[in-house]
Fold:
Amino acid sequence: MSPTGAKPAEPAVAQANEAVLHRFPFDDTRDLEDARRGFLGTAAESVVKDADGRVVWDLDAYGFLAQECPATANPSLWRQSRLCSDHGLFEITAGIYQVRGFDLSNMTVVEGGRGVLVIDPLLCAETAAAALALYRAHRGDRPVSAVLYTHSHVDHFGGVRGVITDEDVAAGVPVLAPQGFLEHAVSENVYAGTAMGRRAAYMYGAALPKGGRGQIGTGLGQTTSTGAVTLIPPTVYITRTGQTETVDGIRMVFQLTPGTEAPAELNIHFPDHAALCMAENATHNLHNLLTLRGAQVRDPRVWSRYLTEAVDLFTGASDVAFASHHWPVWGRERVVEFLSEQRDLYAYLHDQTLRMLNQGLTGPEIAERMELPPALERAWHTHGYYGSVSHNTKAIYQRYLGWFDGNPAHLWEHPPAEAAKRYVDFMGGADEVLRRARRSYADGDYRWVAQVVGHVLFADPAHAEARALQADALEQLGYGSENGTWRNFYLMGAYELRNGSVGTPTVTASPDVLAALTLDQLLDALAIRVDGPGSWDTDIAVRLHITKGDTVTVRLRNGVLTHVTGTGPAAADPDVEITLTEADLRALLLGTLRPADLAARDTVEITGDPGRLTELVGRLGMPDPDFAIVTP
Structure:
């Protein structure tokens, strides 16, 4: 995708970016030294391709970051992206290695007596395979003796089939994960997965052109790969802090940290290596409390307390701390300082948001007032490259008080498109709004331009001048942002206004993820797809007898799809009863087997009217992975 329509930075943005160079300690080179420490080499081939020859990752795509930061990028974000762009195999300490820059996340390899433990095998199978091949090119063709997922986000498990197979697991290769991993890993990518995926296209900017006027990173890493997302369910669960496991001679002590960066997450101490893996609980940025792609709000209070616990439990015997993103920190004093500042960062945001909340301030008002203490602001690793102070404080407000700010005027507002028509009419029509907005643009008030011209667009999405001005304003806001995901959101909005939608580049609801759903989860996922208003007068009951399994009755009534196990009072009298295998049921529910084809199967028995099942399936709609974002 070419940077069609991208424009230079306006003077106000260029001056603001120039001022950043004088505000922060760009002469501090410790991160640069740490990011390059232990470098052993990188891949000879610069691109990673899938089986069809499609490029899913390009190691050289961010080579432009070696150049001087242009006026179209915030120098602080440019610095962060430059550090994240270093790719290759790095030695953390004797026996522990990381492949960095091969995906959004890092893959860690710990050498055991016979083979290796792979921690967090990236987002897709292709990049994970390339990362493992790089390790083996430098350290020998050691087999994978175990895999460990630190948490339930897809960039930490999606590449697992690039490093092991089902046959490996059957032969005894364990897959370790924190308690609750599978439930959260699959539900997050299915229940609201379509909406999250579409918004993730904006957040990560994977489809944006790479360069000074386009995508330069996300702050957490560069972007998301676009290969095959896979999943092999865990075979060993970590259920408590202090639990120890030894795999292939590698001793590990675990700390569970649920409700922090992920609903299911853990930290790992390697006592024989004096090394501490912080998963994604302490990285070189302020993380998200509510990711812009959408998720459940995370808890900064428990996050900070788990960081304190990690300091107490492990730092007395840790010479290095590393994570599943960014680069390590070496030296016990620096590890304590790093973790303590990360702890203070989340605690400060939590406590000060609650203080102002209890003084009657709303989320947006708190976000405008919130400032970090100077000591924290001076630390590069507390900067809002991925999460921001602004949207994190709003997330804390949401966690405690929800969407409503208490003002009854906001209790029953018109929806955006209807409100926009009224705003534009009150302001004298679209032409008058745009005339005034152009003046605000010339004054450098791009934030207001985006807000007010958004009303014109939602009142008239086809208004060419409004689309052009809104794109220009969003672009300038992106150029000035220190936050990588904000930049990507702004630039994606500008791109789609100028060139049309790019859809969803990375699909996480893959066959492996869907296969890992329990039947309860799968039926819940189908219930979300019911056309409720179109099914108000429908009453269909289907009883499913699963061979060597349970009996499940599914009923569509009052626009609601419910299911119950067994044949008790909650199970309605069925219109049709079907005996089938669980594999056939899953194929039916996932749409790979048509109801009309059931009767032809030898393993299926049908009693009653099979047309009722066809009618029920016909009430299920399909989600839209290309819905509009910057227009109604």
